[in-house]
Amino acid sequence: MIKLSRKKWIVITTLASVLALFPIVVTAFELISTEKDSVIFLENYPTSVTILILLYYVFLVLLGIYWFVRQLIAFFSLKNEKEKNELLHLKSQVSPHFFFNMLNNLYGLVEKDSKKAKELILKLSDMMRYSIYEGEKESVSLEEEIDFLENYIELHKMRYHKKINVKLNSQIDENYKIMPLLFIILLENSFKHGVENLRENAFVTIDVLASEDKIRFRIENNFDNSDFSDKKEHTGIGLKNLRRRLELGYKNKYDLSFSTTENIYKVELTLNKI
Q1: Number of Cβ within a 10 Å radius of residue 206
Q2: Using CA atoms, how far apart are residues 157 and 150, in angstroms rounded to an integer?
Q3: Long-range contacts of 16-21 (CB under 8 A, 24+ apart)
């Protein structure tokens, strides 16, 4: 709500009290001056005076309604502003976490394979540019977001010394808009808890399907049973970030589910068009 100084609040409260007591003062004056047991408010006043006083009260009512509406607008504007600021803060948390991990990997690669390190740096630069400039927007095209995921996958393929099977299948509408940097959290989670801990036969499969009114994102990966923590998988910082952003950006227009079958971990995210 609109913040006022203590002095202004005292003035407004005093003025409101005086205005509220005005009919009581007028009635008391009439009782005292006429010495009657009861009086009718404005009974003996000229019609012109009565009309002016009634107009005065109509003005007060309209003024009160105006003030209430202004406070209501200010309240919801402040709420929306807080939500926008929180969304920006949550988005800003996604990139440093990812880029910190990538820079650590690059550090060890510079001396071993400088050519490969340069390629990684260029690709990482493109991803940083997208994360900074596109990540601040309320929405981006689904095609751009998928390109970002593909760059992430290529980066990981370049730095691994083992064979991994990563497939990204998409059927999308090029004009479809989506909140940026949502899917990267789930993709990074699959690499971190799946590919990273497997010496061989690691895979990640991503399916993105966009229809007229919703988009379905499904990702599954295999993992090492001996190193799997269900609680850790479902309550990590990245997933908490994702859930909060979905609550703010999509409210009741999304569905996020997790499932585990033997050594296969699957996540499905459905977003209704907003």
Answers
A1: 22
A2: 11
A3: 19/60
Q: What DSSP string describes 239-268?
A: HHHHHHHHHHHTTTSEEEEEEEETTEEEEE
- Residue keyed to tokens 């009782």: 31
Axis crossing angle, helix 114-129 with helix 47-112, rounded to the nearest 10: 170
**138 Cβ contact partners less than 8 Å away, ≥ 6 residues apart:** 179
Contact 215, 142 (CB under 8 A): yes
Q: What is the mean pLDDT of each run of 10 residues along the chain (274 residues)?
A: 61 67 64 59 64 73 76 64 55 61 75 80 84 82 91 82 88 83 88 84 93 90 73 63 84 91 92 81
> How far apart are alpha carbons 201 and 222 in whole angstroms?
9
Question: Can you give the pTM of this predicted structure?
Answer: 0.64
